[in-house]
């Protein structure tokens, strides 16, 4: 038989080590797939808020799975339990794996204790998308907001996550900010842990 | 000094989906630009039939006294053509760049309906940059 003796044969597929996977995926392929996802959801809804919610739900599923995968593959089966830990995990590790770079910035909200913001000059998912004027403040980054919510929720940090365009002076295109608002219980637990 | 007078993009049925003029030399009002688009579409199709050699894919260059017209047809039948000063160089490569911008910022946009007029902000921004870069490169030659 060809190959016997060269590769260790696993009798059980569950014993096979989890592969690193393909590091690079065609951006065009992803852009077309994402465009189709948005178009499909557009046909199913009546208004923009519904569309945003659907994109967020699609992202939520991705987020939950990404957390499991990264904890097992990159973190040696350890998961962050502190607030700043999980935020920097999302900001660096998750972003690196999904978008090939760490997020531009992570900031704490000045007005409220429970708000944090991850900012990006331009989200990868929005790279080729121009929002028509009549859609107002709709942002396809709702998909990414859903991913972040999925990661945080599965890690035990329930939060409300939304994506916003923030105009920047001197730049034609606005910056995108993912706003994370943690639930009460998270802050209480954080305070208790000290 | 603008070497390019205007840019037209027409869909596979001959309808004008994008028109941009650079400078007053090529400026046309809406009706005239629509007429030019459908006129060129018909001429392009007729030339394929008239060609003495088989396998002709249509007119690529039209040279006149006061202008040149370079045309690029994609595999799907979408035509990109640019009206420019006589003797302008490197229009084919510019058309290819514009085609790439079209595939990126128009076709990957979920809010763009096929064969409809192009209303994509990112396409406009990147198109201006490409034309500007071409203009600068041309001045340097």
UniProtKB/TrEMBL annotation, chain A:
SUPFAM superfamilies tied to this protein: Ligand-binding domain in the NO signalling and Golgi transport (SSF111126)
Lineage top rank: taxon: Eukaryota
Entry-linked CDD domains: TRAPPC5_Trs31
Keywords: Endoplasmic reticulum, ER-Golgi transport, Golgi apparatus, Transport
Signal peptide location: none
Main subcellular location: endoplasmic reticulum
GO cellular component terms, semicolon-separated: endoplasmic reticulum; Golgi apparatus; TRAPP complex
Coiled coil: none
GO BP terms, alphabetized: Golgi vesicle transport
Location of the protein in the cell: Endoplasmic reticulum; Golgi apparatus, cis-Golgi network
PANTHER family attached to this UniProt entry: 41-2 PROTEIN ANTIGEN-RELATED, TRAFFICKING PROTEIN PARTICLE COMPLEX SUBUNIT 5
Family the entry assigns: Belongs to the TRAPP small subunits family. BET3 subfamily.
Subunit structure: Part of the multisubunit TRAPP (transport protein particle) complex.
Protein name: Trafficking protein particle complex subunit
Record organism: Citrus sinensis
Taxonomic placement: Eukaryota, Viridiplantae, Streptophyta, Embryophyta, Tracheophyta
Automatic annotation (TrEMBL), chain B:
SUPFAM superfamilies: SNARE-like
Cell location: Endoplasmic reticulum; Golgi apparatus, cis-Golgi network; Golgi apparatus
Any one GO CC term of the record: endoplasmic reticulum
Keywords associated with the record: Endoplasmic reticulum, ER-Golgi transport, Golgi apparatus, Transport
Gene Ontology BP terms: endoplasmic reticulum to Golgi vesicle-mediated transport
Keyword Transport among UniProt keywords: yes
Chief location bin: endoplasmic reticulum
InterPro entries: Longin-like_dom_sf, TRAPPC
Pfam families named in the record: Sybindin
SMART domains: Sybindin
Glycosyltransferase listed as a keyword: no
Family statement drawn from the similarity comment of this UniProt entry: Belongs to the TRAPP small subunits family. TRAPPC4 subfamily.
Quaternary structure note: Part of the multisubunit transport protein particle (TRAPP) complex.
Protein name as it appears in the record: Trafficking protein particle complex subunit
Source organism of this protein record: Citrus unshiu
């Amino acid at each position: 038989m060809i190959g016997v003796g060269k590769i260790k044969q696993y009798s059980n597929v569950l014993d096979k080590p989890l592969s690193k996977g393909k590091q690079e995926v065609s951006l065009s392929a992803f852009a077309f797939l994402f465009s189709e996802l948005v178009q499909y959801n557009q046909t199913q809804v009546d208004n923009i808020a519904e569309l945003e919610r659907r994109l967020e739900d699609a992202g939520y599923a991705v987020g939950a799975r990404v957390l499991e995968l990264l904890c097992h593959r990159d973190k040696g089966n350890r998961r962050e339990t502190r607030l700043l830990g999980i935020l920097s995990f999302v900001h660096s590790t998750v972003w690196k794996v999904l978008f090939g770079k760490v997020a531009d910035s992570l900031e704490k909200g000045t007005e409220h204790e429970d708000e944090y913001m991850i900012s990006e000059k331009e989200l990868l998912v929005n790279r080729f998308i121009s929002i028509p004027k009549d859609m107002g403040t709709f942002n396809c980054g709702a998909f990414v907001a859903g991913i972040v919510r999925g990661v945080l929720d599965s890690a035990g940090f329930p939060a409300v996550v939304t994506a916003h365009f923030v105009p920047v002076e001197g730049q034609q295109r606005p910056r995108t900010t993912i706003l994370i608002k943690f639930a009460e219980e998270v802050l209480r637990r954080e305070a208790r842990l000290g | 000094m603008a070497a390019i007078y205007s840019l037209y993009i027409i869909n596979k049925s001959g309808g004008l989906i994008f028109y941009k003029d650079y400078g007053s030399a090529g400026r046309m009002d809406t009706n005239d630009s629509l007429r030019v688009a459908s006129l060129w579409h018909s001429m392009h199709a007729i030339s394929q039939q008239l060609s003495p050699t088989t396998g002709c894919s249509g007119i690529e260059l039209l040279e006149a006294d006061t202008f040149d017209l370079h045309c690029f047809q994609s595999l799907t039948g979408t035509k990109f053509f640019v009206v420019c000063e006589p003797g302008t160089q490197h229009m084919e490569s510019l058309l290819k760049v514009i085609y790439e911008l079209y595939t990126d910022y128009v076709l990957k946009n979920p809010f763009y309906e096929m064969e409809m007029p192009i209303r994509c902000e990112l396409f406009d921004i990147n198109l201006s940059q490409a034309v500007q870069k071409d203009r600068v490169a041309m001045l340097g030659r």
